[in-house]
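4.2 Preliminary Data

To establish feasibility before requesting continued support, the project team ran the inverse folding procedure on a target of 724 residues. The structure was first converted into the token representation described in Section 3, and no sequence information of any kind was made available to the design step. The complete token record follows.
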């Protein structure tokens, strides 16, 4: 018997309530077999005598072990590693002139959503901090059916045609002979493929940028990537691109930090999402669209159907429609996050496809993959995948069918059931595909309008600040230095040189190579065996684009200096200065940040006023890479801190990763043993950016200074030139 417990909390919605019929609560219940027989002894198998063999008759043990043996399902072929949460979309700006989709027209309805974030290449248990694209897949449970927006945190893709997707994924996944490396693109097969695919160059710029090592899932943009269509009630279509802009701004970690987080907490992003929602700090995005009238389809330098291109926001601004909020963690990871099945082909009236050949191929792939992953065409009946709109059709049976379709009729047309379930007219909400006129030859080719591969790659690179450019150069050096085949490195330098010579030369210097004088012609790129490759040569760079601030994370206009949910480590020794800890802690918490006490041991330490204070972490069990800033109060036990290598490492890493560091009076000797001490030793009068040392004079402004610096996310001016 199930408890019919109400869904707890106010953060419920129509989908969360609908899931209640599948929730199971064991509290106060007897343990039973799958078939309801109460179990008397769950610890021992049935045996012939105390020391005798187990009996085949033991239906209880057989059932338990059989179920266990079959617990696993195939992981996703891509995006295997991920995390999800429930929430809602709230419309503030209805757009009936562009789309008839109900959830984009009716401001009185909050649409339930389930969002799954993911990395692409790694296995289910791989680190969250891999350099990789992040998936950003949203299931909108609308009243007219499910709309899935299956996007990424990067607005372009590696390839232009779905035909190349298996090749791309085979190249990036661990190499097939030894299954190395895990969750990393830094290996020969990936760069071999990329170096022969000039169309990937724009995406490579993004994937080598800090966008590929986000600080948090909550601090990433989301993009639908392809151009889709909106269709209004009059049947008029408008091209549309989907955008999600995070309320907390778009932020990343630095590469050295990513490497260390992978060791310290491979669940860093998963934990961050979970903890933020549990603590009521709900992740939020503005949902916006770029709209292009059908008549303007050909007015751009690039093809709207080419998924390796953005529409710069300076050309078409993003119109905000409303906000997306995540406010509830799943009850069960497997049931919800693992079994959720997304599909770009799940659309509702008012949203339709463009002819982007990458999108068109995806429309096949996603249902197909669920059949092998979830095992049956009935995957839509799995609770998380169930629509909240009425669902009736003549599809029947199959493995694990849940629905009990009543009646003798499972066909259409029929007269025995009055023709039901009946077709819906357009006015009744029936989906009618956009009446696009198509007159064409059947050809297996790539449009010539898809052959400008370098201009937007160059636009992206030149829109970055110097720090961000340096990070791209370092990432390329890192990745290509892991490639063993020199010819691949050289081919990549040839391609990079077509994007930006300075970039190519700096990467080449890190590899001890020269940029090749003329790039090698890629083999059969985008053409069939009989085609003339000359005709399909990539177009040379057209450098007419103005830099776009929307592409930089550092100067991105949507970034605010909020410190909400940022984590600050307080490195406290025994007898720490309680007054200074409390003053900063209270001020941080008032602004929604989290203060964590890190001490010499687990349990509690005692402050200078005698208060026993619980430590959240120890110097040994944590690291500054898990925090956004550190503060070191004075302590009676300062000597022990000064002798502790973990404490010194904490401070050095925080300094190297450009984080804010605050230190109390009395910490001079400790700091003198760190990078900070070395820097200050050179010049006693120097102040180090983002290092705020408390003095008698600045007592009044210390806390506000610390908070202001934390709001900058990183103190980039501290970063030493990594690139010579
Ligand atoms: Fe894909 C999963 C995003 C191209 C085939 N894809 C998947 C997920 C995301 C994306 C976010 C994970 C969904 C989840 O959390 O369950 N994929 C993209 C984007 C693409 C893209 C933004 C290009 C713009 N994908 C793409 C192509 C193909 C696929 C061209 C095949 C031709 N993708 C799949 C898949 C997956 C998938 C194999 C694996 C698991 C799944 O579908 O449900 O079918």
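Position-by-position output of the design step:
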């Amino acid at each position: 018997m199930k408890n019919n417990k109400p869904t707890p909390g106010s953060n419920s919605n129509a989908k969360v309530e609908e899931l209640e019929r599948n929730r199971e609560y064991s509290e106060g219940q007897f343990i039973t077999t799958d078939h309801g027989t109460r179990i008397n002894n769950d610890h021992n198998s049935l045996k012939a005598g105390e020391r005798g063999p187990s009996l085949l008759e033991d239906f209880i043990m057989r059932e338990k072990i059989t179920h266990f043996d079959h617990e696993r399902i195939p992981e996703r072929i891509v995006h295997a590693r991920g995390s999800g949460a429930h929430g809602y979309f709230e419309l503030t700006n209805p757009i009936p002139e562009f789309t008839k989709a109900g959830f984009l027209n009716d401001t009185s309805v909050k649409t339930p959503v389930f969002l799954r974030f993911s990395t692409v290449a790694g296995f289910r248990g791989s680190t969250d901090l891999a350099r990789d694209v992040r998936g950003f897949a949203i299931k909108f449970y609308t009243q007219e059916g499910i709309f899935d927006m299956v996007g990424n945190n990067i607005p372009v893709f590696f390839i232009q045609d779905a035909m190349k997707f298996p090749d791309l994924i085979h190249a990036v996944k661990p190499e097939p002979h030894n299954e190395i490396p895990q969750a990393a693109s830094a290996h020969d097969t990936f760069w071999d493929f990329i170096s022969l695919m000039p169309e990937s160059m724009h995406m490579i710029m993004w994937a080598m940028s800090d966008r590929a090592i986000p600080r948090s899932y909550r601090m990433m943009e989301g993009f639908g990537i392809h151009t889709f269509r909106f269709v209004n009630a009059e049947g008029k279509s408008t091209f549309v691109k989907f955008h999600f802009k995070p309320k907390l701004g778009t932020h990343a970690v630095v590469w050295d930090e990513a490497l260390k987080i992978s060791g310290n907490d491979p669940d860093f992003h998963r934990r961050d999402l979970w903890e933020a929602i549990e603590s009521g700090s709900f992740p939020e995005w503005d949902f916006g669209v770029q709209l292009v009238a059908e008549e303007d389809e050909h007015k751009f330098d690039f093809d709207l159907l080419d998924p390796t291109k953005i529409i710069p926001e300076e050309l078409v601004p993003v119109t905000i429609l409303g906000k997306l909020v995540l406010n509830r963690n799943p009850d069960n990871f497997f049931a919800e996050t693992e079994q959720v099945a997304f599909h770009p082909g799940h659309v509702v009236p008012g949203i339709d496809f463009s002819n982007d050949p990458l999108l068109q191929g995806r429309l096949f792939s996603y249902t197909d993959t669920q059949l092998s992953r979830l095992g049956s065409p009935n995957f839509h009946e799995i609770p998380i995948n169930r629509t909240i709109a009425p669902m009736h059709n003549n599809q029947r049976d199959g493995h694990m069918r849940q629905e009990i379709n009543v009646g003798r009729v499972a066909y259409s047309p029929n007269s025995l059931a009055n023709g039901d379930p009946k077709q819906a007219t357009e006015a009744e909400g029936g989906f009618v595909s956009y009446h696009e006129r198509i007159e064409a030859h059947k050809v297996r080719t790539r449009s010539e309008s898809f052959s400008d591969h370098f201009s937007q790659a160059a636009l992206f690179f030149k829109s970055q600040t110097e720090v961000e450019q340096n990070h791209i150069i370092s990432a390329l050096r890192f990745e290509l230095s892991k490639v063993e085949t020199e010819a691949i490195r050289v081919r990549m330098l040839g391609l990079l040189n077509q994007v930006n010579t300075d970039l190519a030369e700096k990467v080449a210097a890190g590899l001890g190579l020269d940029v090749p004088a003329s790039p090698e012609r890629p083999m059969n790129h985008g053409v069939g065996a009989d085609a003339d490759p000359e005709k399909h040569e990539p177009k040379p760079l057209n450098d007419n684009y103005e830099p776009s601030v929307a592409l930089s994370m550092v100067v991105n206009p949507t970034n605010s200096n909020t410190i909400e949910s940022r984590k600050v480590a307080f490195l406290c020794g025994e007898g720490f200065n309680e007054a200074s800890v409390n003053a900063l802690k209270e001020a941080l918490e008032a602004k929604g940040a989290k203060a964590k006490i890190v001490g010499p041991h687990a349990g509690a330490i005692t402050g200078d006023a005698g208060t026993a204070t619980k430590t959240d972490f120890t110097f040994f069990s944590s690291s500054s890479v898990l925090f956004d800033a550190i503060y070191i109060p004075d302590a009676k036990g300062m000597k022990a801190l000064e002798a502790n290598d973990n404490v010194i490492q904490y401070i050095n890493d925080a300094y190297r990763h450009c984080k804010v560091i605050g230190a109390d009076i009395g910490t001079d000797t400790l700091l003198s043993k760190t990078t900070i001490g070395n820097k200050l030793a050179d010049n006693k009068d120097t102040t180090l950016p983002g290092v705020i040392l408390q003095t008698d004079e600045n007592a009044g402004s210390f806390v506000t200074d610390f908070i202001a610096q934390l709001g900058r996310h990183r103190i980039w001016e501290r970063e030493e030139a990594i690139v010579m």
